[in-house]
From TrEMBL:
It holds the Pfam family adh_short_C2. Belongs to the short-chain dehydrogenases/reductases (SDR) family. InterPro entries: NAD(P)-bd_dom_sf, SDR, SDR_fam. This is SDR family oxidoreductase.
Length: 234
């Protein structure tokens, strides 16, 4: 008898997180969704899953999500960490408070849920964690300084996690989107992409679904760019 697999999507009420939840549900996962609005609960209801309204900056909300998921489904096989947008300003004008906000939005948004969920995966001897990051980790953009700095830290965190838990069959990878259609479109940004178009949230979701699948069972500690060719560094 096959085991019904369960995916938790943090910040999954809209955009790429919601697209990931829909794709994983279509692939046969039971889904649990956390969002700061009622959108996550509504989407989870549509998908026959579990929805919790709360913040990925709250350990209490994340613990509640994990507890309710385990109570209802008995396991967690996949954790997808999405997030919002942090402060943007010229680098010397960013205040201490804004840097701390960037830390919460772009790095702690992963560290908090992983700290709660990963021990369950280790006990199962199976699990996949996928974090939505940014294509500009390797080539930081001055347009998004807090994102670039803390997501570079996320890349380091991911490598350390992968080294530590690979033997337990718990994997972690980052998806690095470029310009995606959940953002406002501009001709300048579109023209900067070799494929001459924005990517879609569904394309990001498809990459997440692959990394969550058994077919990606030998992939861990990686940063997978999905950016239409903007960044081509090794």
């Amino acid at each position: 008898m096959s085991v019904e697999k369960v995916a938790v999507v943090v910040a999954g009420g809209s955009g790429m997180g919601a697209a990931a939840a829909k794709r994983l549900a279509a692939d046969g996962f039971k889904v649990a969704i956390l969002s700061s609005s009622g959108k996550g609960e509504a989407l989870a209801s549509e998908l026959g899953g579990l929805g919790v309204t709360g913040s990925n900056q709250s350990n209490e909300d994340l613990q509640r999500l994990a507890d309710l998921t385990l109570e209802r489904f008995g396991r967690i096989d996949v954790l997808v960490n999405s997030g919002g947008h942090g402060p943007r300003a010229p680098i010397l004008e960013i205040t201490d408070e804004q840097w701390h906000t960037g830390l919460d939005v772009y790095l702690m948004n992963v560290i908090r849920p992983v700290r709660i969920v990963a021990p369950h995966m280790v006990r199962q001897k199976a699990g996949a964690i996928i974090n939505i990051s940014t294509a500009w980790v390797v080539e930081p953009s001055p347009m998004f300084p807090t994102s670039a700095v803390f997501r570079a830290g996320l890349a380091a965190y991911t490598k350390i996690f992968a080294n530590t838990y690979a033997a337990d069959n718990v994997r972690m990878n980052n998806v690095l989107p470029g310009w995606i259609d959940s953002l406002p479109a501009t001709e300048e940004r579109r023209d900067s992409v070799p494929m001459q178009r924005y990517g879609t949230s569904d394309e990001i979701a498809a990459t997440i679904a692959f990394l969550a699948s058994d077919g990606a069972g030998y992939i861990t500690g990686q940063n997978i760019r999905v950016d239409g060719g903007i960044i081509r560094a090794i």
